[in-house]
Amino acid sequence: MKDSNMIKSLIISLCLSGILIQVHAQNEMFTLLQKIKVDNQGTAGACDGSAFNTKGDIIAASDNTGLTKLFKVDDGSLIRTIRHNEGEVSAANGETNVIHFTSDDKFSVTGMNKTGAKIWNLETGEMVKNIGHGQNTDGAAFSPDDKWIAVAHDRFCAVYSLWDYDKVAEFSVPKQEVNAVDWTEDGSLLMLGGDAKGVMIVRVSDWKLLHDIKFPKHRVKSVALSPDGKYAAACGQDGLACIYDISDGSLVVTLSHNTKTAKALPGDDDDGDEPNVEAIEWSTDSKYFFTGGTYDGIIRAWRVADWSLIGWVQGQEYSRQVETLSMSSDNILAAGGDEGYIYLFQFNPPVVKNLIRQTSDEPISIEAEDFDTNLQQGCHWWSVINDKTASGQEKVQCFPDLSKDKTGVISEYGILDTKKDSPKLDYRIHFSTPGVYYIWARGQSYDHYGNSFHVGMNGKPVESSDKIECLGENNTWIWDKDTKDNAPATIEIKEAGPVTINIWPREDGIQIDKLVLTLDDAYQPENEGPEANMRLVRVK
Predict the structure, then answer these.
(1) Burial of residue 366 (number of CB atoms within 10 Å: 0-12, 13-18, 19+)
(2) Overall average pLDDT of the 298-317 stretch
(3) What InterPro entries does its record include (predicted)?
(4) Looking at the structure, do residues 337 and 392 belong to the same domain, yes or no?
């Protein structure tokens, strides 16, 4: 018993320190390839900018002393150093925010405050052009066809011809700064983001402003257009990232990040408006979206099909902010930030399953182990366990099982904080019939301290289906649909179509074999329950 209590105490201590969650977060979705020191000042400096060249064999990363360093991706060795400014520098005037390559990898651009944007010949290392000297430059990018360069100056974004550097267009955010720019992959659209809630999408053929979008908060820190040309993303204050439809500028989804416990450490950026989502990026196939910032050092991966959080990885030390994200052509994700390092991860997209299909208004039967996502968070995780008594010979169980007393109750879930949140299982279902569904669960536990869980929808808790209890004899499967509120567990599906159903443990040790969702309030499954529904609807 003494040893058991010691193990519990050790696990809780590791969880609170952030060590345990790092171990369990390093799954096959992210493989660490390189960790490269960029700023010799370490946490007193930062890595604020990053970019891959077109070939994907070079990563450029900038520091807080005016230096941009080019490294080989395969071994992390230094190839070249570019000094943006001359003379003494400090964190106040040495922060290099901008790096970008031309499509032929022959030139790059760097940018920082008071010295504008500088274009460099990468073969000779010489500066070719200084655009906007004396201006603050937080964003700059070459068009994909190398005809133009867009530069975010103090109060406006200007587009210059790369043939003669004449200004061809200018867009302003009145009395505020422009912080970021991006182009669609075909070069037909330009996006810019800045202060005063400014997000703009411009048509390149005639430099016409198509969409003038208002971000929910004052400052936009970064923008990113999806490679397939469908979405425009912007991120900024209060832990927000917003996705917009490029065709009409309408809001698609707002992705929130928990910022309640975020605090800047010595050496970190703190402009008085923190914590922000500082960096965003897309996967090469546009099926996944990545966010970073908010002083937790974490990169979050979101599935575009339903905008669910499906994975995460530590991209900087915990409590250090991610400042920049970049994706190579072969899905290598770079993350730099206030630790002063650039991390290179191979992103391995998860297996995408077809949707679970409902035919007519039949009950929907789901094997618990047939999930779409198993998101490990906090001190706990879900594991698939072989069990001959389970309907599909497998079950899911929440570990570690500390539930010999009330320490097994997991107090928080669905709070968007990977350090404290409860682990989550996702099940993507195509509902053919709207209505109020009763939720039955086939579950069991080793003791009465580990027999409850929550069901939510589209990543959010649902009050009518939380605290579901499977009350029965220990180590015996039982069907139950009641919650601790002495009411049947229900969810309401308002329209036909795809919905993501979520499961979070309320108590560790809970074991779940199967779920059944039914419109019939008199229905009760028996024995192993109905055969699981097939996955027949293709994911678009």
Answers:
(1) buried
(2) 94
(3) GH115_C (IPR041437), WD40/YVTN_repeat-like_dom_sf (IPR015943), WD40_repeat_dom_sf (IPR036322), WD40_rpt (IPR001680)
(4) no
E runs forming strands in 237-361: 240-245, 251-256, 277-282, 288-293, 298-303, 308-314, 322-327, 332-337, 341-347, 355-357
How far is the C-alpha of 177 from the C-alpha of 195, rounded, in Å?
6
> Which residues share a beta bridge with 119?
109, 129
Residue 7's H or E segment, with its range, is: helix 2-17
pLDDT at 3 over 60: no
What pLDDT, in 10s, does the model give residues 131-168? 988 888 989 999 999 999 999 988 889 999 999 999 99
94/151 same-domain check: yes
Alpha-carbon distance 152 to 136, whole Å?
Answer: 8
Evaluate whether residue 314 is within a structural domain: yes
- Strand pairing of 452-457 and 394-399? unpaired
Our count of domains for the chain comes to 2
CB atoms within 10 A of CB 509: 22
pLDDT digits (tens, 9 = 90+) for 293-306: 888 899 999 999 99
Q: For a pLDDT cut of 70, what percent of the chain falls above it?
A: 88
Phi, psi of 163, deg, nearest 5: -75, -45
Q: Residues 63-83: pLDDT tens digits?
A: 988 999 999 999 999 999 999
What is the rounded end-to-end Cα distance, in angstroms, of the chain?
A: 52
Domain that holds residue 280: 33-347
365 and 435 co-located in one domain: yes
> How many angstroms separate the CA atoms of 219 and 200, rounded?
13
